[in-house]
Amino acid sequence: MTHAHITAWFLALVLFFIALGLHKSGKAKGFRVVQMILRVFYILIVATGVWMLTSISTISLLYILKSAVGLWVIAMLELILIRTAKQQRTSTLWIQFVVAFLLVLYLGFKLPLGFHFL
Ligand code: HEM
After folding, report:
1. What is the pLDDT of residue 117?
2. Quick check: is 89 in a domain?
3. What is the residue range of the signal peptide feature (predicted)?
4. Which of 13, 42, 50, 52 to mutate to test the pocket of ligand 1 (most atoms within 8 A of CB)?
């Protein structure tokens, strides 16, 4: 399930940048379509994450923190796209996104399931 989880968030990240690119080139319809597909990926990320949580016998605080930061990353992706579409400022959201993303990678690879090179 870790592979499905990694695939889901990696593809979500790719779609996120595609959506930003489409917005920049003025393709509003394409932007909205990619945004919709991205929302399906949010569900897949959460579903694979929860699936892994159910396979663990004792869920430590670190797992709860990892999941919360994961949800924080998803919230930032969604908010950045919404505010970009409305031509509003996104700088504080971008800072939160970078911090949360680095933290979730650190916690994810540090926790025992799947790869652990940290
Ligand atoms: C965009 C958001 C997210 C990113 C970038 C992300 C990233 C990662 C990474 C890099 C790993 C390590 C995989 C491995 O060791 O092979 C991981 C594992 C995990 N993630 Fe996420 N994740 C996200 C969202 C979530 C959410 C929302 C949840 C919970 C609902 C969640 C729950 C978990 C769990 C339980 C693990 C297993 C931890 C372990 O290695 O023991 N993740 N995630």
Report:
1. 63
2. yes
3. none
4. 52
**pLDDT for the residue 84:** 97
What is the C-alpha separation between 96 and 69, in angstroms, rounded?
10
User: Which atom of ligand 1 lies closest to the CA of 13?
Assistant: 1
d(CA 109, CA 69): 13
Q: How many distinct structural domains can be found in the chain? A: 1
Whole-number mean pLDDT of the chain? 95
Asked, for residue 33, whether it belongs to a domain, the answer is yes
The answer to whether 80 touches 51, Cβ cutoff 8 Å, is: no
Domain-embedded: residue 117: no
pLDDT digits (tens, 9 = 90+) for 11-60: 999 999 999 999 999 999 999 999 999 999 999 999 999 999 999 888 89
Domain assignment present for residue 118? The answer is no
Between CA 39 and CA 118 the distance in angstroms is: 30
Q: CA 97 to CA 80: how far, in whole Å?
A: 9
**Cα separation, 88 vs 86, whole angstroms:** 5
Which domain covers residue 50, as residue numbers?
Answer: 2-110
